[in-house]
Amino acid sequence: MRRRKREWLKLLEAADWERYKKRVAQAVKRAVQKFRQEHPDEPVFTISILTDPQAQWTCISFDTKEHALQYIQEVAQYWREKGDEETAKGVEELGFCPNPAGFKYYRFYEVYHPELASLRGLNFADEEQDRAAFAWVEKHLEEVVAKLVEEGVFTFENREEVVRIGINSPYDWFDKTWEI
Q: 78-99 burial, b for 16+ CB within 10 Å, e for fewer?
């Protein structure tokens, strides 16, 4: 068993994580620039940077506060109709959409990662391998976002008072966040 574990860890180590970080940083910069150009009147509220290691794919998504509040209202209503007031209140208290698939501009910018091709050899049905792959992604996304925040990449003329930037982790789509 120990030997098999080392074998799949080698797949994680074989990925070119430095190239991955450069490509994600470049994609985020392009996405921000493209969003500024295409939607100058949309105040940015939330940004998601999500990488799926199984698909070797990253998408950058944007949401507005107006859209997020509408989404929250709809999801809370759904839970109320199911008789789950506690979940409905929890959704409302969150104050933002925690699921990038619900963002107004979901998959606004996408990039594929041939540098992560070795991850295809992982067994994503195995919880340990799945979590390990997402943990490696999270570690590298944290480094990228911290650097981009420091560089001032996430500046918008038209934005909400607080902009939340989120990345995925082994546990959730929008787990680790920064507020700028």
A: ebeeeeeeeebeebeeeebbbe
User: CA 169, 155, 106, 117 torsion: positive or negative?
Assistant: negative
- The pLDDT tens digits for 18-53 are 999 999 999 999 999 999 999 999 999 999 999 999
Contacts 24+ apart (CB under 8 A), 29-37: 29/148, 29/153, 30/109, 31/60, 31/62, 31/108, 31/109, 32/153, 32/154, 32/156, 34/108, 34/109, 35/62, 35/105, 35/108, 35/156, 36/156, 36/157
pLDDT average, residue stretch 92-116: 94
Nearest to 102 by CA among 145, 54, 50, 154: 50
Query: pTM of the full predicted structure?
Result: 0.91
